[in-house]
Write a structure and sequence with these properties.
single chain; alpha+beta; Sortase, Chain: A; 2 domains; 3 helices; 18% helix; elongated
């Protein structure tokens, strides 16, 4: 009788073990154990609504840009200049266009806006978790310097705005030479961020190419 009970118990344990290892119960308990013991779960995949991006660049990873090859009349996808942010000691390439192809490589210039240095509103944008991950450190009275084929243009940030993602006032015309730089916000938001961090800067000085 005891032998029969032991055989039955072993069978139940074997079947239960197979079921346990082949269902979500195993994953759940594993995750719970890691959480309670403080082990890292960074290896798990995080689902994000934003498209995959290039590896994050540190300040020392600034891309080298040949200023003599900037086109005077850029086409979508062209490398058209560079943005230097003194506060971050960062130099970033600017590409004409704001499609994902351009934003994966650097700062995107909104094709519907004027070129940097011209009167009106020149609009730049970039990803918050790559090139603009430290843009939140830049604020009022900081400088933004844009170098293109037309010359070097120095802007001073006059205003910082936090707006909804669908706020179109970011790209409206301006009465004077303005540089508007935007990225998604909050910076540490997981998924598609609902707002935009916007720097509004006015042209302070320029050195045009003759």
């Amino acid at each position: 009788m005891k032998r029969f009970i032991l055989l039955s118990l072993c069978s139940v344990l074997i079947v239960g073990g197979l079921w346990f290892s082949s269902t979500n119960a195993y994953s759940f308990l594993k995750g719970y154990f890691l959480f309670k013991t403080g082990d890292s779960v960074a290896s798990e995949t995080v689902v994000s609504a934003e498209p995959p991006l290039e590896p994050v660049m540190d300040e020392e990873d600034d891309l080298e840009v040949d200023s003599f090859n900037f086109p005077a009349n850029p086409q979508i996808g062209d490398l058209m200049g560079e943005l230097y942010i003194p506060k971050l000691d960062a130099t970033l390439p600017i590409y004409h266009g704001t499609n994902e192809d351009e934003l994966e490589k650097g700062v995107g210039h909104f094709a519907g806006s004027v070129l940097p240095g011209e009167n009106d509103n020149s609009v730049l944008s970039g990803h918050r978790d790559t090139i603009f991950r430290r843009l939140g450190e830049v604020g009022e009275n900081d400088l933004l310097i844009v170098r293109t084929a037309a010359g070097e243009f120095e802007y001073k940030v006059r205003r910082v705005r936090i707006v909804d993602e669908d706020d179109r006032t970011v790209i409206v015309p301006r009465p004077r030479a303005t540089l508007t730089v935007s990225t998604c916000y909050p910076f540490n938001f997981v998924g598609a961020a609902p707002e935009r961090y916007v720097l509004v800067a006015e042209l302070r000085g320029q050195e045009k190419v003759r």
